[in-house]
Amino acid sequence: MAAQPVASSPGHGRAVREGLRDGTPIGLGYFVVAFSLGITARNAGLTPLEGFVASLLNNASAGEYAAFTLMAARASYLEMAVVTLITNARYLLMSTALSQRFSPSTGTLHRVLVGFDVTDELFGIAIARPGWVDPFYSYGAFVPALSGWSTGTALGIAMGNVLPSRVVSALSVALFGMFLAIIVPPARESRVVLGCVAASFAASLLCAVAPLLAAWTAGTRTIVLTVAIASAAALLFPVSDDDLPQEEASDAT
Amino acid sequence: MQHSIPLYILVMSAVTLSVKILPLTLIRTPIRSRFVRSFLYYVPYVTLAVMTFPAIIQATDAPVAGAVALIAGLVAAWYGAGLFQVAATCCALVFALELILA
User: pLDDT tens across A112-155, in order?
Assistant: First the structure.
């Protein structure tokens, strides 16, 4: 390997084009889901520009959904910070996994820029490539992904009210569908994850209907149940290194 | 206390970007604590599950449409449908059911 495999590699143009190619279907999908996210943002009182900026800086479906819900409830800034931290905690894992796949000579600026748009999908395609992660491949993929996500959110806010209420009602489940698609495949592979999901559904329902617990905000419920159930699972069923995402692609090097 | 949407966006963006950028920039060795690694491993599944149910049933005009979308989404994802196939299936079912029910 050259001393500076990233900064001096001649293949930047090709990496960018490959990233654009792989990022395009992701961006199209993001656009549709972001439109439904925009409807949530609209209910929280955001303008299209505010939604555009929020989605440009946060490219995170669950985190933004939770944040917009908190805005609608006029939550405190501290609650906003804690819920954003909890709902985006999985990116700590992904960012950590990516750090293990970067060439040691990769500069801080590349690390910051790639970290800027870590999402489930963009993390997935970056880590699926053999060898060191190429920041330029990620930059190429970011263009359609961020465009689709930000403009989709802004359009959802701008046009959520011109759509028939039946269409809005139908689109409102798109995000939940995405969440299901993220949690179900690992639940099929692991009985512990399946148990976590089932326990979470049951506990969440209980908190929504039980006399005293129903007073909790959705944000409080998310924090308390996540910390409680994930801690219990970590204590009772600690994962082996083989289960962690950074191990999946390590055979490439 | 008056809350401003730009300030909310500033707070959420600062937290999100720190979460995404700091590990990549600062951590050069794997996290050693098995508990922390395990906790982080389970967090996304618990968080997303808590946020999905029962909210999906409360999101639609007709609760039964949300319930059917939940079951269909679970089944579709179980049998390998991707992110956007599952989302589209849920949306289409709610749309069709609310047409019939209304």
Answer: 999 999 987 788 778 767 788 899 999 999 999 999 999 999 99
Number of Cβ within a 10 Å radius of residue A190: 17
8-state DSSP, B1:
-
- For A126, other C-beta atoms within 10 Å of its C-beta total 24
Q: For chain B, percent helix, then strand, then coil, each to nearest 5?
A: 80, 0, 20
Q: What's the rounded Cα separation, in Å, for the pair A16 and A22?
A: 10
Extract the tokens encoding A57.
């800086």
What would the two tokens of residue A229 be?
A: 């159930």
Task: Dump pLDDT digits (tens) for A154-173.
Answer: 999 998 767 777 887 887 78
Q: Which residue of B has its CA nearest to A164?
A: B95
- Whether residue B69 contacts residue A151, with contact meaning beta carbons closer than 8 Å, is answered with no
- Confidence tier at B10 by pLDDT (50, 70, 90): very high
Give exposure, A152-184, as e/b (b: 16+ Cβ within 10 Å).
Answer: bbbbbbbebeeeeebbbbbbbbbbbbbbbbbbb
Q: For A53, which residue in chain B has the nearest alpha carbon?
A: B9
Q: Find which of B43, B95, B99, B100 to mutate to test the A interface (most A CBs within 10 Å of its CB).
A: B43
